[in-house]
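Each lists sequence, tokenised fold; shown next:
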Amino acid sequence: MLTIACRVRFVLEICTFICDEIISIGEEKLVKAYTNEKQDVRSSEIAWLSDKSIYDLIIPAIKDANTKAGWYWKITGGEKIQFTKYGIDQFYNWHVDGGSDFNATYSGGYLYDYESGNVSTSMGTVRKVSMTVNLVDGNEYEGGDLEFDFGSVSGKNRFVTCEKIRPKGSLTVFPSFIPHRVTPITRGTRYSLVLWSLGPPWQ
């Protein structure tokens, strides 16, 4: 199921056997993720993937979401795909994936061009759209909820748990500037994919 975090939803499912293949690929490349020495922001294992077949699988969903949500943001490509493994007590605290102004522009890095499939530099671009895929069924773990903070102007609807990401193969797309987190795992293991789509800063 594909969910757009800004209250717009429509369906897309990635085949479960493809999810299992991605887990097998990712498990072979895992390293511990660090964001600070205290590890109070994040605790997980990650791997970086750049398989064209995975990009081909998820890029159409990102483009579709960008249109159907009414964003129509200019996105030119994506970073390497992050494969993440959350075990017991692992988490990712409140954070944003990136700003969308000139202060957040990249000075260089990996960019997979969505049109040509070529790899170039991400220089001068910013993260605009974030995407995550749940690679295991929500019944296989407890905790590990993807939660959004839509700000105080949303009133009682400020904090939202994305329940529609729980089924295996479900995909969620949201603006990279929205604060979000993954709550601690209390049972089982959660596997996911994350891809950040980039484009020029807004004027």
